[in-house]
Specification:
Blueprint: H1 6-22, H2 26-34, H3 42-57, H4 59-66, H5 73-81, H6 91-95, H7 99-109, H8 111-121, E1 126-130, H9 137-146, E2 150-153, E3 160-165, H10 174-177, E4 181-183, H11 186-195, E5 202-205, H12 212-220, E6 226-231, H13 234-246, E7 254-258, E8 271-275, H14 290-293, H15 296-316, E9 319-324, H16 333-337, E10 345-347, E11 367-369, H17 371-374, E12 379-385
Parallel strand pairs: 5-6, 5-8, 6-7, 8-9
Antiparallel strand pairs: 1-3, 1-4, 2-3, 9-12, 10-12, 11-12
Helix pairs in contact: 1-2, 1-3, 1-5, 7-8, 11-12
Length: 386
C-alpha cells in the first residue's frame, strides 16, 4: 500500500469522520469504512490499521498546527501523511490530547509526570490473562513460546503475562483462539484482585458486560462463587453469556440480569463489584479515538452515574470494590468524597499499586494504577467495607 496514495487519504478521512462525528471507537470505524475491502491480506491490513490508529492519535497535534483555519478531514489526512506540519511546542500539542485534559492533570501531577503519563498512554502494552479454567499456567506459557511470543510474567499477578513481542497479531494466536489466554489489561485484573472473591461467596457485578471481570471472579474462585451479573444492555449480556461459556465458566453459578444497576433492588450479597462506565481516559492506548470524545460534559455526566452505582452497591453489600478506567479525579477521588465516610471504611486491598491523587485528605486509602509506572491502563480503584 502506498502511504501517501489518494486511496489511503480517503480511508483516513472517512475513519476520522466516523470517530469524530459518530463517537465510535477506531475499531468500529475501521470496520465500517473498510468492511474487508480496504486491503488484501493480513499483513497489509495490520499495516493500514496501525496507520489509522497513529493518524487518529495525532489529531490534536494536527489541530494545533492548523489553528483556527477550517480544514477538511481529507486535508488533515494529506497533511499528516506528507508530514507537512510542525509540532507546536505545547504539552497538549506534543502528545496530542485535549488542552483542558492536559491542564487538569498538570495541576495535579506537574508537568514532568504528566509528560511521562501521556507518553506512556500513546503506546500500547499488551497483557494476556492465563485462563486457568481451560489450562495450566505452565502449559500455556510453553504454547506461547512455541508461537514465537516473547513475554514476561507479572510478579504481582502471576497469571498475567506482558507481551514484549509477537510474530503474529495477538488475536491470531492459537491459545487466544482456544480461550486458554484472554487479552485483558493488568489493571482490569487488579480490580478483581481487590475484590478478593472467595469460594461460595455471593457476588453482584453491577456493570458486568462484556464479562471479563465476571469470568475472572469465577476463575479465582475456581467456579465456586455465585455471581449475579447485571448490565443495561441486553445485547451485551447475550454476547457475555457466549463468552463466559467459551472461557469455561460454570453458567449454573452465574445469573445474568438485564437491569439498570443504579436502581436495582435485590437481596444482600457478600460482595459487590462496580466497574463503572467512564470517560475511558486511562485506556487511550487501546483506542486513540477516546481522545476525540473526551469532554468535560461527558466526564460530569459519567460521574453522576458512577455515584449512583456506588451508592446502590453499598446498599447491596458490605464489601464493595469500585473502579473506573480513568485518570481524572472527577471519576475517582471525587466520587468517593461524596460518600458519608463515617459509615464506611476505605482500605488499600492491593498494597503494591499507587495511592490516589492528593486532592482529598483520604487519598492514601485509595488505589491508582498509572500507565507510566505499571505499564497498563490508567485505573482508579477503591475498596469499601462496613
Amino acid at each position: 500500500m502506498i502511504r501517501g496514495s489518494r486511496r489511503v487519504v480517503d480511508i483516513l478521512a472517512k475513519i476520522l469522520y466516523e470517530v469524530k462525528e459518530h463517537h465510535v471507537s477506531v475499531d468500529v470505524a475501521f470496520k465500517r469504512v473498510c468492511r474487508g475491502r480496504c486491503v488484501k491480506g493480513l499483513e497489509e491490513r495490520e499495516e493500514l490499521y496501525n496507520l489509522v490508529k497513529n493518524f487518529i492519535s495525532d489529531y490534536f497535534k494536527l489541530k494545533c498546527y492548523v489553528g483556527d483555519e477550517e480544514v477538511s478531514y481529507r486535508e488533515l489526512a494529506r497533511l499528516w501523511l506528507d508530514k507537512k506540519y510542525v509540532v507546536v511546542n505545547e504539552l497538549y500539542c506534543i502528545y496530542s490530547y485535549p488542552k483542558w485534559f492536559v491542564d487538569e492533570l498538570v495541576n495535579i501531577l506537574g508537568v514532568d509526570e504528566v509528560s511521562n503519563v501521556l507518553n506512556a498512554m500513546n503506546s500500547r502494552v499488551w497483557w494476556l490473562r492465563v485462563n486457568t479454567l481451560r489450562t495450566s499456567e505452565e502449559s500455556v506459557l510453553r504454547e506461547l513460546e512455541l508461537e514465537g511470543v516473547e513475554f514476561i510474567v507479572s510478579k504481582e499477578v502471576p497469571y498475567m503475562v506482558k507481551v514484549l513481542n509477537s510474530k503474529r497479531p495477538i488475536r491470531m494466536l492459537k491459545p487466544v483462539k482456544e480461550f486458554k489466554v484472554v487479552p485483558q489489561d493488568l489493571a482490569s485484573a487488579v480490580v478483581v484482585e481487590a475484590l478478593k472473591p472467595g469460594f461460595n461467596e455471593s457476588i453482584i457485578d453491577l456493570t458486568a458486560a462484556p464479562g471479563l471481570k465476571t469470568s475472572l471472579i469465577m476463575m479465582l474462585s475456581e467456579n465456586r462463587a455465585k455471581v449475579v451479573a447485571c448490565d443495561k444492555s441486553l445485547k451485551r449480556l447475550n454476547i457475555m453469556r457466549n463468552l463466559l461459556k467459551k472461557l469455561g465458566v460454570d453458567l449454573s453459578k452465574v445469573s445474568l440480569i438485564h437491569s439498570d444497576s443504579t436502581t436495582i433492588s435485590l437481596r444482600r450479597f457478600d460482595k459487590a463489584l462496580v466497574d463503572a462506565p467512564c470517560s475511558n481516559s486511562g485506556a487511550v492506548h487501546k483506542d486513540p479515538g477516546i481522545k476525540l470524545s473526551l469532554t468535560k460534559g461527558k466526564v460530569l455526566h459519567n460521574s453522576i452515574i458512577q455515584s449512583k452505582l456506588l451508592s446502590n452497591a453499598l446498599r447491596l453489600a458490605d464489601y464493595v470494590t469500585f473502579s473506573t478506567c480513568s485518570i481524572l479525579p472527577e471519576e475517582g477521588e471525587f466520587i468517593i468524597s461524596k460518600l458519608d465516610l463515617s459509615d464506611v471504611k476505605l482500605f488499600r486491598a492491593i498494597t503494591w499499586v499507587g495511592k490516589g491523587y492528593p486532592v482529598v485528605n483520604f487519598y492514601e486509602s485509595l488505589m491508582r494504577l498509572m500507565p507510566h509506572i505499571h505499564e497498563c491502563e490508567g485505573f482508579f480503584i477503591a475498596t469499601l467495607t462496613r
